[in-house]
Amino acid sequence: MDGFAVVDTETTGIDPTHRHRIAEVAVVHLDAAGAVTGEWSTLLNPERDLGPQAIHRITAAEARRAPRFADIAGDLVEQVRGRVVVAHNWPFDAMHLRAEFARIGVESPFDDLAGFCTMRAASIVMPNSRRSLVACCTTAGLPAMRWHTARDDAMAAGALFGHMLAQAPEVVRPTDEQLQAAAWGWPALARDLAPTAQRLPADHVEPHFLARLVPWLPRDEEPLVDAYFAVLDDALLDRRISASDADALVGVATRLGLRREEVLAIHHTYLRALAQAAVSVGERELADIGLVATLLGLDGAAVADVLTPGDRVRVDPAPTVGGLVLRPGDKVVFTGMMTADRDDLTARAVAAGLRVMTAVSRQTRLVAAADPDTMSVKAKDARVLGVPVVTEDAFVRALAALAG
């Protein structure tokens, strides 16, 4: 045996038989004395919505660019090969790891007895402690961590294991089942297929998508920008530009051969159209147009440029450019774990005359998502069909306006 591999996973939900997946995995190596000798972790693209994001705090913008489990399976195997695996509530991690390996056709030794469970052992070593990892670490006098991140939870479980190793070595002695799992004959799996992906710092600011537009050679003809305007319409429906929106805009601009300076000029034109289409330009609308200007990478002077005296009078109708307007009969679809109760949100939508559907079609007005960068099947279908994916907050505001 080469030591211990402390494992932790963050998942999209509890039960893998209900299509829940691993969204982050970490492994911390300990030697026979319980000292940390190495660590490895990565976010994963679960290829579905992320579930309880309020708990694990993984955003779809992070996960969508992370490797899939199949891409890192070989690397993960090398992290656990020859080591006794350890986890807090091992049966939960075992269940998800077993399911992920099964999805790629790889048999694994990860049953409930194959790993050492610090939660189960804590009931013997620290019988007065509650069962959560936080409670057990507190009882053991261990420092607080950034809980519900796979890396820090694995570090905490490793420290807890080390504490038990020192206090009650007879409790943490590996069993025959755990040693057999450590000696499992894993198949040869490819390694280094994709780089690992780490969580972004809390203060990370994503560069404006315009910064990703590379300069292009001049052309002899004016660009056809209707396609770009159409994508921009959808992107600004909820007054934000998500990572998915930014990718779409960059893709359209690139296909059109637009240079960065030309896109900025198009944004000025778009902002003027938005101002001219507004119901009125009072304090609220000025702030809204200023927000759109910021999203488009324009400075404050751009707002003053588009707001001529003629723009300040009431015009007809409601905004048709860059505004989310719902009408009775519109078909809407929900995806992800919303802040509001899903049944309540559905009831409010139906009462306002909307048709709440369970699948996306070309007739769907929009998909309301807990995270607009979600990788749920519904969101994927929406992007293929050109149906906008908007935030829950934007949908609720539009619903309130429809309900009057």
Account of the 3D structure:
The chain is an alpha/beta fold and 404 residues long. It has three domains: 4-182, Nucleotidyltransferase, domain 5 (2-Layer Sandwich), CATH 3.30.420; 209-312, no CATH class; 331-403, Rossmann fold (3-Layer(aba) Sandwich), CATH 3.40.50.10190. The protein is 41% helix and 12% strand. It has helices at residues 53-56, 60-63, 69-80, 90-103, 118-125, 133-139, 150-167, 176-182, 226-235, 243-256, 260-277, 283-295, 300-306, 342-351, 377-385, 392-403, and strands spanning 4-11, 22-30, 36-43, 84-87, 116-117, 331-335, 355-357, 364-369, 389-391. Strand 6, helix 14 and strand 7 (355-357) form a beta-alpha-beta unit. Helix 5 (118-125) packs parallel to helix 7 (150-167), helix 6 (133-139) crosses helix 7 (150-167) and helix 9 runs antiparallel to helix 10 (243-256). Residues 279-284 and 310-322 have low confidence and may be disordered.
